[in-house]
Amino acid sequence: MFKNLLSRIIQLLSVVVGLVLLVFILFQALPGPEQILSGQRTDNSTREAIVEELGLDEPVYVQALGYLNDVSVISIYAESKTPKGIKGLCITQGNNYQLWVKLPYMRKSFQTQQQVSAILWGAFGGTAVLALAALIVAGIIGIPLGVLAALKANSKLDYTIVGFSTLGISIPSFFSAMLFSWIFGFVLHDFTGLSMTGSLYELDALGENYSLRLDHLILPAVALGIRPVAVFIQLTRNTMVEILNQDYIQLAKAKGLKESVVIWRHAFPNALNPIITSIGGWFSSLLAGSFFTEYIFQWKGLGKVTIEALQQSDFPIVMGGVLFTACVFFIIHSLTELMYVWIDPRLKHS
């Protein structure tokens, strides 16, 4: 267990380092934030001052190492350059250097000067709610249809359901998001009552209080859940077909047990392992893959915040959003594997 945990930590660190270096390199192709912050009519001296203040005058590798030092749990700072927003334990060293054991520091937004960690945590709730809602939609629709297809294997109904799932896998989430937004939020708005855009909480007409708008969740959740619905259908169908042909299922039928008992108490529980693994994997994928869906529906989440920051060259938010999503993806995958072992104890010995 300890070796496995150590291996995963090393993998996470390597992913974080790789992402930092990659995003730093790609960010060089974007317009400098000093152009946006200073405006078009500002003179060169003002822009140079902004560049120096943001540390953008240093070589790329120096900026990358500085950012890795900030997001690291153990960091070393020159006493005069210690960030004000870090939280942790400081052990003062000689030669005016400080050793810190701290929480990861993701710096401040170029635009608002707010802590990036606070911005991301505020947006993460919206992304988590959307991903969970999409996963629930996928489970409610996909698993029963998969069971039904397995029970009617090689029939016209089976072919229809599998054909629907194949089509669903082929449709990108951003395309289904645009399609659903236009059809159900605009063309059929008078019938559905749904809006093309909107977040979970919305200001009232007076702009004073927030109100909960669950109706805004319907279209983005369904659009985001189309692909996992298709995957759940095929996975459930194939697993159930295999299990229904097992000897112990045939024996249960020979004993005269009701078909519903055979299906739901004997066959379906044994089909849960791959389904739960897929659910965990899809939840982390939906968290990371909801960026364009959130932006299309203007749903306040990590995706919308990160894309808007990218448009404004707000580098700390972009970097924070990428690393935050990668860490959440890694943690959920690890928890999914632990749950898989808990469901099937035989894996503990392998």
Plain-language structure description:
By secondary structure, the protein is mostly helical. The protein has 2 domains: 2-102, no CATH class; 116-349, MetI-like (MetI-like fold). It has helices at residues 2-27, 33-38, 44-54, 60-71, 116-151, 156-170, 173-187, 189-192, 215-244, 247-254, 259-267, 272-289, 291-297, 302-311, 315-343; strands spanning 74-78, 88-92, 97-102, 201-203, 210-212. It has a 3-stranded antiparallel sheet. A two-stranded antiparallel ribbon has the order 4-5. The longest helix has 36 residues, at 116-151. The two termini are 12 Å apart. The model has no long low-confidence stretch (mean pLDDT 83).
How much of the sequence lies in strands comes to: 5-15%
Structural class: mainly alpha
CATH superfamily of the largest domain: MetI-like
And the CATH topology of the largest domain?
Answer: MetI-like fold
Do you know the CATH architecture of the largest domain?
A: Orthogonal Bundle
Q: What radius of gyration results from the CA coordinates? A: 25 Å
Q: What is the terminal-to-terminal distance?
A: 12 Å
The percentage helix is 55-70%
Mean pLDDT: 83
Please report the number of helical segments. 15
How many runs of DSSP E, i.e. beta strands? Answer: 5
